[in-house]
Amino acid sequence: xxxxxxxxxxxxxxxxxxxxxxxxxxxxxxxxxxxxxxxxxxxxxxxxxxxxxxxxxxxxxxxxxxxxxxxxxxxxxxxxxxxxxxxxxxxxxxxxxxxxxxxxxxxxxxxxxxxxxxxxxxxxxxxxxxxxxxxxxxxxxxxxxxxxxxxxxxxxxxxxxxxxxxxxxxxxxxxxxxxxxxxxxxxxxxxxxxxxxxxxxxxxxxxxxxxxxxxxxxxxxxxxxxxxxxxxxxxxxxxxxxxxxxxxxxxxxxxxxxxxxxxxxxxxxxxxxxxxxxxxxxxxxxxxxxxxxxxxxxxxxxxxxxxxxxxxxxxxxxxxxxxxxxxxxxxxxxxxxxxxxxxxxxxxxxxxxxxxxxxxxxxxxxxxxxxxxxxxxxxxxxxxxxxxxxxxxxxxxxxxxxxxxxxxxxxxxxxxxxxxxxxxxxxxxxxxxxxxxxx
Length: 439
Ligand SMILES: NC(=O)c1ccc[n+]([C@@H]2O[C@H](COP(=O)([O-])OP(=O)(O)OC[C@H]3O[C@@H](n4cnc5c(N)ncnc54)[C@H](O)[C@@H]3O)[C@@H](O)[C@H]2O)c1
Fold this sequence. Notes:
Layout: H1 3-11, H2 15-23, H3 25-30, H4 37-46, E1 52-57, H5 61-73, E2 77-84, H6 87-100, E3 112-114, H7 118-124, E4 129-132, H8 139-148, E5 152-155, H9 163-178, E6 183-185, H10 193-203, E7 210-219, H11 233-239, H12 245-248, H13 251-254, H14 257-265, E8 274-280, E9 295-301, E10 307-314, E11 321-328, E12 332-334, E13 339-342, E14 345-348, H15 356-369, H16 377-396, E15 400-401, H17 402-406
Parallel strand pairs: 1-2, 1-4, 2-3, 4-5, 5-6, 7-10
Antiparallel strand pairs: 7-11, 8-9, 8-15, 9-10, 11-12, 12-13, 13-14
Helix pairs in contact: 5-6, 5-15, 8-9, 9-16, 14-16
Bound molecules: nicotinamide-adenine-dinucleotide (NAD).
Nicotinamide-adenine-dinucleotide binds near residues 57, 59, 136, 157 and 254.
């Protein structure tokens, strides 16, 4: 990048120009920014033109963590807008960020938005990047709005709770690609150094052909936020969203998706051909646990005959294990442990283990600055479809084919959002047609 081009860019640094610039299309074409991002940053920064303004939508546990990661990952990001349903979440998130990064967090009162329409105000702001970290149900709505507003996106998993929601996210991701907007997924293991190397070795043939996969996400229970007398039913469900399928997608989608995504990754990111499964509510049977299950066991199958046997359980006092076991024609691998066994040899990952959460943000901002925005839209959507496929196989007790899945038009949740009464949906009963959640 020569000095003449740089000063030309800086002198036209309005918010919209900056966004255009960061979207990278024009500049990447001229090669002005490509490859020179790191070297040129300090000088550009002094004039302020390389600051990436970041908004967070969903200021809960993960969202607050993602905002911290956004600052850690890039020297010139600033958090400038915060949005959440509830003002107290914004306050606690802001306190945490300001304490850690007093110089990088600039969120005046007028840039704090609460309520169900808070996301719309975010899209009207001059931020470059939005972090979509709310309850999963709202992700399609937020993805569409972010792409329409020309924002780069960090998108937590799962991307939807139903099939029509996934189709919306796929369409928004395609549009993002056309507009040179980044879409980076919160399926964080895709950015983990150890997992990437183990998967690469498997893909390079370290264990021969993959024969079968076992995915375990066997874990304990998560939080419950109780019920306050002043809360409407809607607020109660939004506070305790994990336990309502219309909000979380159930824990096979909300948590086990991390395992399913690795099986998908090893199968060229293709949605399986079919799935059968079984699951239920054995321990979490009280009303406070909404309508989700507490265990699922599935068998997914792809065209080439490879099967993935997947198990997830959220129960206290049981055996816990979270890992991925890959059986090949010439050996086997355990992904999270970072071990590959092939005839006469055991390989162990001994490389660095930087935070995958920071790494996904490093990749996001680097790709924006280099004018080559990452787009994780397909695999984050396909993993969500795989989770919904497994859930529906267990909820219905039927075999679910990919064709039937893709044609499923069921939309979960109310048709409009108000802080009043809301139907939580039925508890799914396998083998009982019509007894499907949300219908
Ligand atoms: N990648 C990971 O390892 C990881 C880890 C934890 C959570 N997550 C994902 O992150 C997301 C958030 O999880 P969390 O643990 O932070 O939950 P949380 O309940 O702590 O935070 C969610 C926040 O979103 C807000 N919110 C909900 N709907 C909203 C809307 N329409 N507009 C604005 N704000 C809204 C809530 O008020 C809440 O503050 C979930 O999708 C979850 O699956 C990912």
